[in-house]
Amino acid sequence: MYPTLKDFVDKIFIVDTTLRDGEQTAGVVFANQEKIHIAKMLDEIGVNQIEAGIPAMGGAEKEAIKSIVNLGLKASIMAWNRAVIEDIKNSIDCGVDAVAISISTSDIHIKHKLKSSREDVLDSMSKAVEFAKSKGLYVSANAEDASRSEMDFLIKFAERARECGADRLRFCDTLGILDPFETFSKIKTIRDSVGIDIEMHTHNDFGMATANALAGVRGGARYVGVTVNGLGERAGNAALEEVVMALKIIHNIDLGFKTKKFIEICEYVANASSRQIPIWKTIVGANIFAHESGIHADGVLKNPTTYEAFSPDEVGLVRQIIIGKHSGSAAIKSKFNQFGIELSKEETKLILENVRNMSIQLKRPLFDKELMYIYNDVQKILNKGANLAV
Ligand SMILES: [Zn+2]
User: Fold this and answer.
1) Residue 283 in domain
2) Shared-domain flag, residues 306 and 256
3) Predicted local confidence at residue 2, as pLDDT
4) Cβ(166)–Cβ(139) under 8 Å?
């Protein structure tokens, strides 16, 4: 039998970077009060580590991180740093218990961005990691653009990080260019070569951030970096709600998260980031539990598991039967039942015809009020028919 994800991993930790990578999204700024509120919600939901920001930016950013540290949350609070001692000193000022120390490992970044050499990269990372460890911090050594890095060098980087005391390696698919098969093979290679914990940090440029994060877990990564709503640079990151629900529903790995609160935190972050949740958004979109087509609505009315992978209340949503062009008679009958009206076969048939016509004209599903207009019209037609018959 094909092994399940459970066979590959004993424990999975969720690292949320909504407040760092999420806020790095072009055009997104959180107010400090919003950052604090988001941190509280992430902690309450069950996130293990919160990447709270970049202390080296100073000013309000540093204040926000300090305030989050002072909340005394259960989650570990991590700050993001370049592989620069000064950055780490700023993180220490904020009182965080963990630091991410980031430097590029791909030749393309080393040559064109850092204008440096592989040796210098290893050197800067080693010094920064050793410094942070000497201050008693938990350390993630971040390999930026890891997905485009040469494997031999990436392994060298991971080995050196481990020797310097780093607690884990963050594997960044910075451009989101991996597919799950490649991801699995890369992570497995690193895990088999270097005994260091790995965090997946995946981007969604080709729509594979969550798939790649889970493929990394299958390859041996125990940490998964996520953001609420998948907010993040360009196409975003792996979404918190997707990763947690995919683990729970597809892989039967329940991390014990308060998933009922997903809609609350997703809506809060959507408002704070001025990025509304599209109705078709995975897990928390308004359409995820909305059924209109006749066959689907009929199935769901008989038993929701026919067309729902999980129950809407697991993520704080409610099921909706939408009445529109694609509706069938079962949905119409059920809808009017909710209004306390028992429809006859003939009434149902006439209402359905009218619903379809009106919905095509309006190019949208119908509101309850409109359904009642149709019902009244149908009653008039039927009564007229009855009168004529007399
Ligand atoms: Zn990123």
Assistant:
1) no
2) no
3) 67
4) yes
Q: What is the 3-class SS of 207-276, one letter each residue?
A: CCHHHHHHHHHHHCCCEEEEEHHHCCCCCCECEHHHHHHHHHHHCCCCCCCCHHHHHHHHHHHHHHCCCC
Mean pLDDT of 98-106: 98
Element spanning 197, H or E: strand 197-202
Domain co-membership, 227 together with 86: yes
- 204 CA from centroid of ligand 1 (Å): 10
Are residues 315 and 224 part of one domain? Answer: no
217, 245, 272: which is the final residue of a domain?
272
Residues 132 and 252 placed together within one structural domain of the fold:
yes
Q: How far is the CA of 183 from the centre of ligand 1 (A)?
A: 16
pLDDT over 80 at 106, yes or no:
yes
In this predicted structure, what is the pLDDT of residue 388? 64
Q: How far is the CA of 205 from the centre of ligand 1 (A)?
A: 11
Q: Report DSSP state, residue 75.
A: S
Residue 201 maps to which CATH number?
3.20.20.70
Q: How far apart are CA 1 and CA 333, in angstroms?
A: 45
**pTM value?**
0.91
Nearest CA-CA partner of 259 in 10, 9, 41, 20: 41
Domains identified in the chain, total number: 2
- What are the Cα distances from residue 333, in Å, to 329, 369, 371, 378? 6, 16, 12, 14
Phi then psi for residue 114, to 5 deg, are -80, -20
What sections of the chain are H helices per DSSP? 32-45, 59-70, 85-94, 107-112, 118-134, 151-163, 180-193, 209-219, 240-245, 262-272, 294-302, 329-338, 345-362, 368-389
| 81 falls within a domain | yes
From ligand 1's centre to the CA of 233, what distance in Å?
Answer: 6
Predicted confidence (pLDDT) at residue 108 exceeds the cutoff of 70: yes
CA dihedral in degrees (363, 367, 370, 371; nearest 10)? 110
Residue 4 has what pLDDT? 77
Residue 235 in domain: yes
Tell me the residue range of the domain where 252 lies.
10-272
CA of 21 to the centre of ligand 1 (A): 5
The reply to whether 340 falls in a domain is: yes
